[in-house]
């Protein structure tokens, strides 16, 4: 979809520039063409890299230093933040497979399964 929008915009712009340059004298059209070319060149330059440091909470670094490979349940942060923190501490995490459904506790599953040690 974006390709078609860009293609359509470039065709409309080309027709508009043709009509503009047809009405102007050669020095004026050369001046406006140079300004539009410089603007196009400036717009396509890459953006500078960010030099800011992302602040990570201390508990994420603490989780990374733990030797166990146990799972983590994060109920505080939204999903994208959870996934970012997981790239730092590298521990498995509990995820919502079906968002909005009611969670069943592990204790209820053990009690209802009939395990003798409950």
Overall geometric form: elongated
Estimate the strand proportion: under 5%
Number of domains: 2
Instruction: Please state the average pLDDT score.
Output: 78
Task: Name the poorly predicted regions.
Answer: 104-110
Radius of gyration: 29 Å
Largest sheet: none
Helix content: 55-70%
Q: What's the count of strands? A: 0
Distance between the termini: 58 Å
Order of helices and strands: HHHHH
Question: What structural class do you assign from the helix and strand content?
Answer: mainly alpha
Per-chain topology:
Elements: H1 2-23, H2 26-43, H3 58-65, H4 79-89, H5 106-113
Key descriptive features of the protein:
mainly alpha, 118 residues, 57% helix, 2 domains, single chain
